[in-house]
Amino acid sequence: MNATNTSDEILRSALSLIIAGGYNGFSYADISKVVGIRNASIHHHFPSKADLVRALVVRYREQADAGIAALEQNVPDPADQLRAYLGYWQACIADESAPFCACALLATQIPVLPEEVVVEVRAHFRALSSWLTSVLERGEAQGSLHLAGPAKAEAEAFMATVHGAMLSARAYGDAEMFGVITAPLLQRLAARA
Amino acid sequence: MNATNTSDEILRSALSLIIAGGYNGFSYADISKVVGIRNASIHHHFPSKADLVRALVVRYREQADAGIAALEQNVPDPADQLRAYLGYWQACIADESAPFCACALLATQIPVLPEEVVVEVRAHFRALSSWLTSVLERGEAQGSLHLAGPAKAEAEAFMATVHGAMLSARAYGDAEMFGVITAPLLQRLAARA
DNA sequence: CGACAATTACCTACTAGTAGGTAGAACATC
DNA sequence: GATGTTCTACCTACTAGTAGGTAATTGTCG
Questions:
Q1: Distance A91 CA to C19 C1' (A)
Q2: Tell me, what CATH number does A82's domain have?
Q3: Cβ A171–B21 below 8 Å, yes or no?
Q4: Domain count, chain B
Q5: pLDDT tens profile B107-146
């Protein structure tokens, strides 16, 4: 087990702890229990908690960007891209592997977050919104998607509804709720002409 | 300053602290600083933190129910009721008096919340969803609102989008974002016939 | 190759400070 | 004088973070 693995494990366990309860919802002790190292050893990899969470969000964003890039390459149709995106989250929520977007959860706590974390969380929102905007624009240009307003506004509404659907699924304790809320998003965007 | 006022002040300061960072985002020390009493005195009014937050959510729900009842009495048109509901939150976010729904914020942290708090948070979601459903049904019956699907599903989507809009406003640090996301909700529901 | 320095990774032991919570005295008010 | 409220004083458990040390690995140079 080399260094890379340990700091990876720290980040992975911290991620799932954050998904459960956010920045103040976990401690170094929680991580050390999962990873199997001492509390102090975490500081070797990440000097402070803010460093740890910032690193975690940076990596989360990289993986999200990679996922989007893969989607862009493998799924040509804009509507199918949105469908795949929703399907990804539906699966994550259903199997409880990652039943919430870490950035969305952290964003709820922005007022009590270290500034370096806030910056990264904001960047994720901008990146996601920007990608969704481009998908909607492409879909509209191709005639496969019908937008009621500006692509940017539709993208923001799409993203917000997805985040709200995660929240409702958690609040009701019902993974199906995510699909109930998000499925109509696609239907509405499907062209009527 | 009698007992009622003090426990009221405790609940009020705890509410604004929860709105900022959720259950683990504040401590008794934070409350005592605001209210001007000693840490230990809070325990006289609320034996445990779980009791305090549960009481807070119960009161929050009562006030929400009262607000809805007032809306039912003063605003006859279903579309206007939705408009008033969104306007209420738009104002809360713009003046930063309560820039997030306390129950929505707590709901994000359900996995790390005491069970007695979870129960109350869930109840708020059900009550709000139930009211929105009734508004949509009434609007559809009157022909003033046009629903693309079942009223219950539309209500859940409406609520989720509102919560997501709060989140985006916070993430971007832009109160306007709430309106950008929620205004189209009303436009879409406005009858086209 | 072997010697030796530097680096990495983790440890034990500890710090100051904070968490929620308790016991009992003091004080006020009816 | 009884009741309700707040206080001081304290507790235990835990917080993030530090100090200093020990192996093991890696790089480098004669």
A1: 37
A2: 1.10.357.10
A3: no
A4: 1
A5: 999 999 999 999 999 999 999 999 999 999 999 999 999 9
